[in-house]
Write the C-alpha cells for this entry.
Amino acid sequence: MSLLKAKSSLTREKRFDTLNALQGTLASFEREFSTKEPVKRTRTFSQSSHDDLLHALRLLAGIRESVIVIHGSRGCAAAGLFYHLTFAAGRWIVTSLDERDTIMGADLKLRKAVTEAHKRYKPELIFIVATPVVAINNDDIQSVVDELHEALDVDIIPLFVTGFASHHAVTGYDIALHALLKYLGGKRIEHPADNRINLLSVAGHNDDQREAERLLSVFGFELNTLPDGASAKTFRQAQRARLSISLDDDSSNYMGICLQDEYGVPYVEAPRPIGLGATGRWLAAAGGELGLEEAAQTFHVQECKKVKQSLGDFTLKGVRVYLGLSAATLFSARDLVEELGGEVIGITFRYIDHRYKHRLHELALMHPALPIHVADGQPFEEVNIIKRLSPDLYLGDAAHLSQIGRLGIPVVSLEESPILGYNGLICAARRFSAALRNRSFTSAIARSPSVYQDAWLRRSPNWHIKMEVK
C-alpha cells in the first residue's frame, strides 16, 4: 500500500525496529544486531527527552508563508514558544483547550481558530497540529479540514501527533513530512524529469544548507530545497526532480522514500557530508546518479587542497573524544575525528536501527571493545559513562552539554554551528581548537556542584536499563 494513503506515518519502532535503550560494547551489540532482531530494552527510570510534537513543530517552523494552529491546551503551545524564541520560528496560535473540551470535543474552537488565522495572516498554508490532548478527545479534524478548505480556499494540512505512540521524538519529523507530501505532493504525473535536484534538509543550520547548495551547484542543476525554507510550490515541483539527496538521512529518510515510491524520484542514500572523506562520498553519490562522477571528483580534489591549506598544522593527535549524536551524524563525525588524528573512546547514539547494520559491523571489526550507549535525553547515564572514561573532548547535540562540562571536559555542540562540507569542516576545526585551548569556561563551571548525588554516580550506567518482558 502507498505510504501516503495512511492517515499518518508509522512510528520509528514499526518502520525500523529502532532502539532507544542499550549499554555495552560495540562487539556484543553488533553480534546481537546482525544475527537476530535486537532484544527490546526499557528503562525503569527515564530522566528527560523531547517528544514528537517538538520535532514536528520544529520542522513546520521552516515552511514559508504558513501559520500553525496548535490544537491542544496552552501547555502544548509551550513547544511552539520554545522554537519561536530559539529558532525565530514562524507564526502560530493555539486553540487553548480546557477540561470541558477534552471531554466534549472542541471542533467549534478549531474552526474559529483556523478562520481567524486565515483572516489575520492570509497564509498559503495552514497547519493543524493535533496534540496528545486531541488523541484523547478524538476531535474530527478531517471534517474541519474538508469544510474550511472549500470555504477559505487555502491549503489546510492536518498533522496527527499523539505523543504516546513512539519513544523516538524523530517520529515527529516523519509525521510532518508525511502530511506535507500527502497534501501538497499532488497526483503522480508521467513526464520527463526536469533540470532539478531535491535537496532534503530538515531543521538544519542555514550555513550548512548554503554549503550543500554550493557543492551541488558543480553539477549545473537547479536546486529544490525542502522542507527547510520551502513553500507550497517547492513540494509540488519535487516530483519532477532528477533525484533527491539528503543532508541527514536520520531526519529526512521518510521524504526521500516517499518521493521515490510515489513519484519515481531516485533517492540517493549517502553519508552525512562531515569531513573530507564523507563529503567526497556524498558528492560522488550524487554525481554517480547524474552521470557526472568526473565533475564530482575534480571538485573534491580542488576543495581538499583549500581545506588542508586552511587547517594548517591543526590536529587532534593525542585527543580522546567522546561522541553523543544521532546515528547518521555520529558515524560521519567519528570518521572526521580520525581524519584529524584523534581517537574516539566512546559513543552515545540518540537511537539506532537496522539501517546502520553495515556501519556497525565495519566499526566493530576495527574497535570491538568500544563502549556503546543508546539513549535520548538520559544525561545521568551519559554523564556517568563519561566520568569513568574521562575524555579530552566531547562532541554532541544534546541539551545537557552543560552537565558534561561540569566534569571539566571541553564540549562542542554540533547543532549550533555549521559542520557540513568543506567550509563546515574548517569551522568545526576552529571550534575544536578553541575548546581545547581555552579551558577557562570549563574550569569555571567544573567548580559548581554536580546535579547528581554521589550515590547516583556510583551506580552502573545501565542500572535502569532492563530487558523487556513480553
